[in-house]
Structure formats: structure tokens, C-alpha cells
Amino acid sequence: MNNYQTTFNPFSQNISIVKSYFRKKTVLTQGILYIVAALLNIATVLMMMPVMNNFMSTVFSIPELTADMTAQEFEFISSFMDIYINSVMIVSLVMSVALSALVATAYFLMYFKSKSDNPMSTPNAGVTILYVLSIIQLIPIIITTVMMALMIILMFVMALIPELSSDYNSGGSVAIIAIIYTIVFGGMCTLLLLYFINQVRYYKSIRTSLNTVTLTNKGAGIFGVLSMIYGIYTALNALSSFGVIPMFNMISTMVPEFAVIEGLLNSFVPVVIISAVTSAVLATIYIINAVIALGYKNHIKNHTNNYNEFSASIMQPQIDYNTPQQTSQEMLLSQPEPDFQPDVFYDNSNSPASAVCPRCGTVAKESDIFCNECGAKIK
Fold first, then answer.
1. N or C: lower Cβ tally within 10 Å for the chain?
2. pLDDT tens for residues 321-346?
């Protein structure tokens, strides 16, 4: 019979711990929601393009807006606006659909690779896709934040030098605008920067747990909390989308020139509804992101604590504190005395390093010239 000994492998242990978490149905649900979001984006653009074309055609039909234009100028501007609007919408659609498809693929890989019992199957490919996309998303946020910071610094400099703010009565007006700008836009940029930085750290920590002997959950907590905040904000934004139609009605009432386009408002209703549904799906995605990230943080934390407790129980001796402990002096005195061992004498007369006195037979050292007993000469 062969005896097999199981060897602890920290790499396999970490992969098993991570896979046990990402095989949850919430990960699969997230991938499905991203596919739904991509389909809703396609439907929104397909519905929006003819509506926007009709809207622009109606606007250019207002005599007050085109009175100073020649026929050629009108034709050029209307054609340019149609091409511009359609191009922008198509480009944004392709980018959003491609992003949603990649993220959905990443979550599907994470789920099905984690469900597999094959030890060589890991969710590393899906996590890597999310990690790379998070880095790509972080770059424009950093650029925007730097531009915002430079704008704020410039506005405060203008407030300190009145000659640079000649359009205002005093530099104080510029300072007030700079403070408001800092609070509103600076705060938004800071939150976005924190969100995407911790998103990168979160996906990087998953990759570290899968590819090294270290279990880590860095960035998962902050990313989860900010995802929940953005989810709530997006949900409120979805509800506010239904206020677009009343806003157009108010504008058409206040501005007589816009009364001509009042008949087009009904064509915007389906677009507004599908946009609200899309925002609701995005809000759900943010909230599930928060649930997954916070759950991952607790999952890794619990396994790390259990491992530390297990290691401590092995490395440290168990002491019963209910029984009195001996002091070092008592322990020394309580040690048993060693058995008496008699002295052992060795006869080194036959040793090559000795000599014998020819008169009395006393053994002497090889280096002695005279005997230590009788004084006879040995050599």
C-alpha cells in the first residue's frame, strides 16, 4: 500500500479561497447586467438619432434663426449638424458597447472559472481585464483633476491681482467664484479620483491574491463605499430623467420661438423612458459592485484572521493559566541531580607521545629529558 502525504501549497490555497468567493451568483448577475446595459445603449441611440435629426430640422425651420442665412449656408449648416450629431452618437455608442462587452466578458470568466473544479482554472483572466480597464479609465480622470486644479489656482491668482480680473468690480468676486468652483467641481473630481484609484487597487489586490502567497483586499473597502454612493446618485438621476419633458414645455412657454418645436416633445418620451431604465440598470450595477467589493473585503479578512489564529496556535505553546506556574529558580532547583560518575584514569603508557624512565619505570612526557621521580636521564 502506498502512503501519500498532503503538502500545504499557499498558492493553491489562495486560489481556492478567491474562487470560493467569485463563484457566487452576484458575479454572474453583474455580467448579465452589463449585457443588458449595452443593449439599452444601442436601443437608446437608435431611437435618439431620428428624433435629434427631426429636432434639428425643426429648429432650422424657424424663420428668426435662418433669416440672415443664404440657401447654401443653410444647407451646409444643417447637413453639418446632422453628420456631427450622428457621428458623436455612433462613436459614443461603439465605445460604451465595447466597454460593456469587455466588462461582461470579464465577469463571466470570473464566475465560470471559479465554478470549475479544475485546479488549473482560475479567474485571473477576468480580473486582469477589469484591472487593465480600470487603469485606462483612471488616466482621463487624472488629466481632468490636474486641469481642474490648475483652473482653481488660476482663479485664486486672479483674485489676488485685480488687474487680471478687470471684467469684475473687484477681485473678491473672482475669489467667491473660485471657492464655489473648488467646493463643487474640486469635490467631484476628488471623489472620482478616489473611486478610480481604489478600483485599480481593488482589482490589483485580487490579482495579487491569485498569483502570490499573500492574501490582500486593498482598495476593496473604499471602492465599495464609493460604488454604493454612485449607485444611489445614479438611481436619483434616473428618477430625475422624467423631468425633461416638463422642462421643454416650460421653455416653449417662456420662449415663443421654441413653441414651434412643442410638437416634437412627444417623440422624446420613449427616449426619456429608455434613458431612465438605462440609468436604473447602471445604478444596480454600481450597487452590486459595492456588494461584491465589500463582500470580498470581509471574505479575505475572515480567512486571513483564521490563518493567523491557526499559525499562532501551532507556533506558541499552550499554557494553562489556571494552574500555578513555577519561577525560573524553582524550575532550576527542581531539576534532578545527575548520577555520580567516578573519575576515569587512562593508562597512556603505550601512547606514542610518552617515554619511560629506564631506572624507576615512571611514565614521562616525550619532551622530558630527566625523570620527575628519580632524576635519571631519560634520553
1. N
2. 455 555 545 554 555 555 544 444 44
